[in-house]
Design a protein that fits this description.
globular, alpha+beta, two-stranded antiparallel ribbon, 485 residues, six-stranded antiparallel sheet, 44% helix
Length: 485
């Protein structure tokens, strides 16, 4: 169905460039769509009128039931390693790429639906989503954006008016999200698995055109593309680690070529510091535990390298050697990003070397781990300690001699408290607060969700009256999150 209302004009750059990876499809009809939350600042940045999006036609657009003239919604095809096992055909089983649109600066972004119904990639699923997990993605992705971490963003969550059967019948919803693209490592695995070298090359050329146009004329554009993705993912995961974020499902189909965080399913922010922290209900072996995220990312990038081998060199052995050399850049890039971020978190002199920074930081992490100290609270308390109030830190730990010795070493470096406060958030999406807001929203009360979003929009600014949003929740070692399928 088309429309002549003031809805946006959508491009079809992905479907036009890569028809082999795009299945034209339409969203299932939502019986009674109702807008739950709209990201008005993001809408305006994309040139969208919030009033139009709130109108009946706008709401139908946000669930994929009213498609602008000329738009070509498609389900994207991709493969992926899921918990280490390869699936050659995954794809958008419950999602649609509506198209792409430009922001005020002319940069183009994909507009993508999640929970819009079964597609040919559904693999037996119902293709639907429910209110709680879609609002989780909205809350956490917007929190990540406010923290300055590259991420897909949520434009809106819309209730469908349909009950969806999970463990119980739950209200259905569709998420509309925005990304610089939805190209994934799994996209390249799918193209490589097809045996079509021309498709693989066109996919790589498309990725370069969208994300790294400066590489188009490079001597080795595909090697440069791989290096750029390695560096972007190293920086991204370092940022996750620095704020205590646990993605929960780091399959290769959830690793973007852009270096943006994608697919906030069983994700959460860590409270008490523990590298073994796992939140996903399906990660029984801890493959995607907090402390494993850098190594898993490097493993995923090795799978990306395997997919690119024919483009790196016509001789397979030479291609493997080239890919291995390039993949070695991950560790260097990750250490540099993590150490640089930790220098800022600890307010250390910018000239302090990575090795010295890591030695000091790792000793602090052992103090936090042994005392099960809250990650976010600890670093804000260190900001107060840098101003002379060491009791704020000492009150968090049991082993006082150990922490006193560390504080003496750290304070001798004259840490910059103001710099620390600019990078150590007061407010993150605390698990108990997210669950409280999602439960209320599922029951029809959006006020707690709206308040939480307001708090998380300014994570570094401590404000009176918001103390409960800064406090750790109850110690729940068995806390679990679910992807919602």
């Amino acid at each position: 169905m088309t429309t002549t209302t003031a809805l946006p004009t959508l491009g079809d750059r992905f479907a036009r460039a890569l028809p082999e990876l795009a299945v034209e499809w339409r969203a299932e009809e939502a019986p009674d769509p109702r807008l739950l939350v709209l990201n008005e600042p993001l809408a305006r940045r994309l040139g969208l009128d919030p009033d139009v999006l709130r109108s009946p036609d706008g709401v139908r657009f946000l669930v994929g039931n009213l498609v602008p003239d000329g738009a070509l919604p498609v389900a994207q095809g991709y493969a992926g390693h899921q918990f280490g096992g390869f699936s050659p055909r995954l794809g958008d089983g419950r999602a649609l790429l509506l198209g792409d649109l430009a922001d005020a600066d002319g940069r183009r972004f994909d507009l993508h639906l999640k929970g819009s119904g079964r597609t040919p990639f559904a693999r037996g699923g119902d293709g639907r989503a429910v209110v709680g997990p879609m609002l989780r993605e909205h809350v956490v992705s917007e929190a990540m954006h406010a923290l300055g971490i590259p991420t897909t963003r949520s434009l809106a969550v819309t209730a469908t008016g349909r009950l969806v059967q999970r463990e119980t019948a739950l209200p259905g919803a569709v998420l509309a999200r925005v990304a610089s693209s939805h190209l994934r490592v799994g996209s390249f695995q799918y193209a490589r698995g097809s045996g079509d070298l021309d498709l693989l090359r066109r996919l790589a050329d498309h990725a370069i055109a969208v994300h790294h146009p400066e590489l188009a004329d490079a001597d080795e554009p595909y090697a440069e593309l791989f290096s750029a993705v390695v560096a972007a993912q190293a920086r991204l995961v370092a940022r996750w680690m620095l704020v205590g974020f646990v993605h929960g499902v780091m399959n290769t189909d959830n690793v973007t070529i852009s270096g943006e965080t994608i697919d906030y399913g069983p994700c959460a922010f860590m409270d008490a510091y523990d590298p073994a922290t796992v939140f996903s209900s399906i990660d029984s072996g801890g493959r995607y535990a907090y402390g494993n995220q850098p190594a898993v990312t490097q493993w995923n990038l090795a799978r990306f390298a395997e997919a690119l081998l024919p483009l790196l060199d016509t001789d397979e052995e030479a291609a493997i050697a080239r890919a291995t050399d390039l993949l070695g850049g991950f560790a260097t890039a990750y250490v540099a990003a993590w150490a640089g971020g930790m220098r800022d978190k600890l307010g250390l002199p910018t000239g302090l070397g990575d090795e010295e920074t890591m030695d000091l930081a790792e000793d602090l992490l052992e103090v936090l781990r042994s005392g099960r100290v809250d990650w976010t609270t600890a670093f804000r308390a260190l900001g107060r300690a840098a101003r002379g109030d060491v009791e704020a830190v000492r009150a968090l730990v049991l082993d006082l001699p150990e922490v006193d010795a560390w504080l003496d070493r750290w304070r001798a470096l004259e840490p910059d408290a103001d710099r620390m406060d600019r990078v150590n958030p007061v407010y993150v999406p605390r698990n108990h607060l997210v669950e409280e807001a999602l439960a209320a929203a599922t029951d029809g009360d959006l006020a707690p969700l709206e308040r939480l979003l307001e708090v998380l929009a300014a994570p570094y600014d401590e404000r009176p009256g918001l103390e409960r949003y800064a406090e750790p929740g109850p110690d729940a070692g068995d806390y679990q999150t679910f992807c919602g399928t």
